[in-house]
Model the fold of this input.
Amino acid sequence: MAWQPRRLSAELQQERRLEAARLLRQGVPQVRVAREFGVSEATVSKWAARLRSGGLRALRARRHPGRPSRLTPTQSKQVAATLRAGALVAGFPTERWTLRRVARL
Done:
């Protein structure tokens, strides 16, 4: 099973790590796992170390903290509702949303 494309979603990356862990636990050599999943041996070595130290939980996707939102949850819902309703309903002359228009919300 070759994992393609090159860019995988976080969910697919996690699935790949967990599937690799299953093979590693079955005793499949790291070099073979690397070839199977199209990653480097160093990557599989890191996965194996995480698996040994923290089990499957250590291979699960972690939340990326990023910059905190400036909007409250209520404000985010209001913006989303306004965007769904459309620019005309929000009082703009055309239906096109631009960054400047969204910023005005």
Observations:
- The CA atoms of residues 14 and 37 lie 12 Å apart.
- The chain has five helices and no strands.
- Helices lie at 10-25, 30-37, 41-54, 73-85, 99-104.
